[in-house]
Amino acid sequence: MNIRQRHFIKHTEIRDLKEDILKQYNNDFIEQIFPKKCNIELILTEAGDTLYAVNNELTLWKSEDGYIPVLTLLLDNKLDLKTIVVDKGAIRFVTNGADIMRPGITEIDASIKKGDILQIVDENHKRALAVGKALFNAKEMEAKTSGKVVKNLHTIQDSVWNFEKNFK
User: Fold this and answer.
1) CA dihedral angle for residue 142, residue 138, residue 109, residue 28, rounded to 10 degrees
2) Maximum Cα–Cα distance for the chain, whole Å?
3) Residue 113: phi, psi to the nearest 5?
4) Would you say domain 3-75 falls under CATH 3.10.400.20?
5) How confident is the model at residue 40 (pLDDT cuts 50, 70, 90)?
6) Residues forming CATH 3.10.400.20 domain(s) in the chain
7) Given a cut of 70, is residue 168 above it in pLDDT?
8) I want to staple 133 with a disulfide (CB 3.0 to 4.6 A). Which of 7, 42, 51, 151 is the partner?
């Protein structure tokens, strides 16, 4: 992933960005991502990805699924997201980008709604493995015994993760 364009955005653009993010998340998310006084940088890559850095730390990635928080925020416990817990047998598949199947899930956050962006964590260490998008409400997930229930959007193996590791 190479940078095509990179620039700081104006305060009026920050307001518009926050309003756009509020369509997908709540105020708590905004407060966790954007401190009171911060510099927000827009990064466009040659691959067509749009990324946002706050105070020189990569925080958000805009995809067709909306605004996706970068996995390092979850690993560093800087962000709270609704959570799906998977068993140790699913870890290898999840980190390699596979969608989350119902049999591999051990816990489901009861507040999950279809379309929510959530974190996928392992059951032993509760460490973030991936960021996904719920394909069903929590009750529907609980009722299922098989099939795909969460779309995997971002893992420690993908291009955004690799870009973030070399970013600064």
Assistant:
1) 180
2) 49
3) -120, 155
4) yes
5) very high
6) 3-75
7) no
8) 151
Question: Residue 158, class by beta-carbon neighbours within 10 Å (0-12 exposed, 13-18 middle, 19+ buried)?
Answer: buried
The confidence band for 138, taking pLDDT boundaries of 50, 70 and 90, is very high
The proportion of the chain whose per-residue pLDDT surpasses 90, expressed as a percent, equals: 83
How far lies 83's CA from each of 39, 125, 159, in Å?
Answer: 29, 13, 23
**What is this structure's pTM?**
0.90
CA quadruple 112, 113, 114, 118: dihedral, nearest 10: -40
128: which 2 tokens? 């973030």
- Confirm or reject CATH 3.10.20.30 for domain 83-155, answering yes or no: no
Amino acid letter, residue 145: T
